[in-house]
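User: For my dataset I need records formatted as: sequence, then structure tokens, nothing else. Please produce one.
Assistant:
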Amino acid sequence: RDRWSKPAKVWFWLNEHCGSLFSTHLVADHPEIARHLARVSPKRRITTIAYGADPVADAPVAALDALGIEPQRYGLAIARIVPENLVLQVVRAWSEVSPGLPLVVLGKLSETDAYHRAVRAAAGPDVILAGAIYEADRVAALRRHARFHIHGHTVGGTNPSLVEALGAGSPVLAHDNVFNRWVAGPDAAYFGDETELRHGIVRLARAPAGHLAAMSSGSRARHAEAFAWDGIFDAYERVLRAQLPAARTRRRSAARVEVAG
């Protein structure tokens, strides 16, 4: 990540490398992270288990009143305000196309941060920089009633914010990369550069209700398929049980029998 200094990157690399070499078992939150770890650790020692999120079937619209917005009449972006999340590009693109809807941006902003100042400067009158909101029920309501969710993250594995958007049934417009493609699935919309981002914003701002409903159903289906808590808890239980001494002894015995045979 660009925001880390070279010494910090070296420190993170050393931690990752040592952890990959000496851990009993590795859990990756995304298939691409598992492939990354497999460069220094055998695949048999790696299991992919994504993050989960609660589904949001409904949420009170009163949470929208403080921002002066209406259900299905705003876009939403929730991200740490850093360059690799493309917050500046999202704010700039929305301000340039002026789709006739407000964009609500959730994320902590500081006057002393140059990137944050650039985001503020790029924000047009249709952009609401709401800062950080930590009340889970308010955030869930904003996700549930948004017309669509913009996810500009360019790096990382399974991003919790994107998973929560799927659980809320939000239509998703995401940066086109291997991480987001796997998480959001085929029913999301994607953009590569800022031109495609502007086109995507206009398309979804003007999309008929039926198209948005189909995208919403796709989000919920992808959440139920891969990010429901029951499946995630079961996967962790299998991994943990496999590390119990009795299970490890059985595996070693089976391996000896196979070699002998």
